[in-house]
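Sample 3 of the quickstart, ligand zinc ion:
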Amino acid sequence: MATSERVNENVGRRFDNGNEVLFCTHCNQELQGSSATYLSNLPRYEGPLSEAGPQVFADSSVFVDAPVVFRQYYCPGCFTVFHTEVVPS
Ligand SMILES: [Zn+2]
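Result:
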C-alpha cells in the first residue's frame, strides 16, 4: 500500500518496501537523500546578492565582513525553487 505525506510545501514522502522515498509534490520527481539531507543533494544556483531582488540590500559588506552569496535549491524535474538563502560563500 502506498501512502504518502507531506514533508513541506514542496516535498512529499512515501515508503517503498520500508525505505523512505522523497519526491517533489509538483512533478513527482524522486529526490535523493532523507528529509534531513535532501536539500544538499538538490541542484542549486548561486549568484550575486543583486539577483535576490530589490528587497535584499545588494552590498552586504555594509553589514558583514565575509562575502555572501544568493543561493537557490530547486527541483531537478520541474525547476521549482524549494529553498532560497543568502549565506556566506
Ligand atoms: Zn518537481
